[in-house]
Amino acid sequence: MSFEIDIAKRLGETDIALTLEAGEGATVLFGPSGVGKSSVLNMVAGLLRPDRGRIAIDGETLFKAAKPGGVDVPPERRRAGYVFQDARLFPHMRVRANLLYGAGGKADGLEDTIGFLGIDHLLDRWPRTLSGGEAQRVAIGRALLSRPRFLLLDEPLSSLDRARREEIMQAIEHVRDVLALPILMVTHDPAEAERIGTRVVRM
Amino acid sequence: MLDAVEWGAAEWGIVALSLKVGGVAMLVTLPVAFALAWLLARVRFPGKVIVDAAIHLPLVVPPVVTGWLLLLAFGPNGPIGAWLQDWFCVTVLFRWTGAAIAAGVMALPLMVRAMRISIEAVDRRLENAARTLGAGPWRVFWTLTLPLSIPGVLAGAVLGFARSIGEFGATITFVSNVPGETQTLPLAIYSALQQPGADAMVWRLSCVSVGLSLIALIASELLTRRAGRGLHVL
Fold it and tell me: Which of A22, A193, B62, B219 gives the lowest tally of CB atoms within 10 Å of its CB?
């Protein structure tokens, strides 16, 4: 199983609960805004602590609520490739430095990644000079170059126009089919869910 | 009025001493102020309100009280003064180092304020993104928190430097007014005001004071605006 998630969390007035076992390919969390889809991704990434439950990836437990014997792997050791809705590029680093931030000083794989994302001409630019689509492609590249075990995508297309969406969609399909990384993606768009999702989980 | 433009060795000495006292005060206070600013911006702990208030005390307590408290602490029988004497055989009383301590304490609240605002302005979501890319808390601090808050840190440093140069009440109470040792610009102006016929000296030193302060405030304001626009200076 790529993802084994059984978690619950109360955030303000919202109760977030999800039980999910997913194999290879892309798992899409689909549902309206405000049901806590992004919070689920944050919990899988280790940025938000569930109240109870367990999270495991490829059989390795990343989080387990238990006293004693609980597990809570810090985010920097979960090897999640997290692509946020807003690209969250580091504004004081050029694109190249952003891409290599999580690469541990090794630039191998850079050529392949910038090649299929079509961002080779952006390497020396500052993030603030990029369009939304360019920034999102750099963010995907940055996540991939950190050698993740799985990818978390939080509505990566929502801030883009139709033409840009198609580019990013193809990039995600490439990750799913060619790089064969397990993907957990959040969306509220049924067409996106249909196209990317190997399976769709409603929340 | 001709006197007013005559600039002698005495004036140079006073300005040089002021810059030395202000510079040392600022540099020594800088890491302390940054650590406190970070603590107030990022950490929740019991008694935070009290720590916050204590840091701001020098801003509102009469400077003469601050100076007297420093005298108690650093005097020969004070806890810090006795320790310095026993271990290093040094005293800061009537010394420029004491003037720098007084200036640093008085500048601390201004520096903490400027730095705290810029640390609070650093987008935590960027730091979270860095964590998911494999960066531990220290790397996140050195590669994101610190560089992104640099404009505020510099603004705070410049402001603290200017405040240090202007420090009067705590300094004269703590380390007295010793020419060539603790007599910085404001103390020299005060002395000149006591002497008949030293008006020209008062004019000259006051002009330098206003000029230095103006430059510092403009620099600090420009840096703060840069920080507010989310730009970086490195």
Answer: B62
Residues of chain B contacting residue A80, judged by C-beta atoms under 8 Å apart: 132
Q: Tell me which residue in B126, B132, B234 faces A90 most closely, judged by beta carbons.
A: B126
Separation CA A53–CA A199 (nearest Å)? 22
Q: How far apart are CA B170 and CA B207, in angstroms?
A: 22
The verdict on A135 touching B (C-beta cutoff 8 Å) is no
Contacts of B230 in chain A (CB under 8 A): 91
B14 near B188, Cβ under 8 Å?
yes
A45 domain residue, yes or no: no
Q: Nearest C-alpha of chain A: how many angstroms from B217?
A: 25
- Structural domains for chain B: 2-228 (1.10.3720.10)
Distance CA B46, CA B24 (A): 33
The interface residues of chain A toward chain B in range 155-184, judged by CB-CB distance below 8 A, are: none
Q: Residue B156 and residue B33: Cα distance in Å, rounded? A: 9
Distance, in Å, from the CA atom of B21 to the CA atom of A85, rounded to the nearest integer, reads: 50
Give the CATH number for residue A137. Answer: 3.40.50.300
Is A69 inside a domain boundary?
A: no
- Put simply, the answer to whether A75 touches B232 (Cβ < 8 Å) is no
d(CA B105, CA B112): 11
User: Is A186 within the bounds of a domain?
Assistant: yes
pLDDT tens for B183-221 read 999 999 999 999 998 888 999 999 999 999 999 889 888
User: What value of ipTM does the predicted structure carry?
Assistant: 0.92
**Chain A: nearest CA to B223, how far in angstroms?**
16
The residue among B123, B131, B133, B231 with the most chain A CBs within 10 A of its CB, best to mutate, is B133
Distance CA A156, CA A170 (A): 12
| Domains in chain A, number | 1
| Facing residue for A82 by CB, picked from B132, B144, B230 | B132
Looking at B167-228, list the stretches that DSSP marks H as alpha helix, in order from N- to C-terminal side: 169-175, 185-194, 199-228
**Res B219: pLDDT:** 86
| Domain range enclosing A82 | 23-39+75-202
Say whether A86 and B133 touch across the interface (CB within 8 A): no
Confidence bin at B229 (pLDDT 50/70/90): low
Residue B128 to residue A81, Cβ atoms within 8 A = no
The answer to the question of residue A48 being in a domain is no
pLDDT at position B1: 43
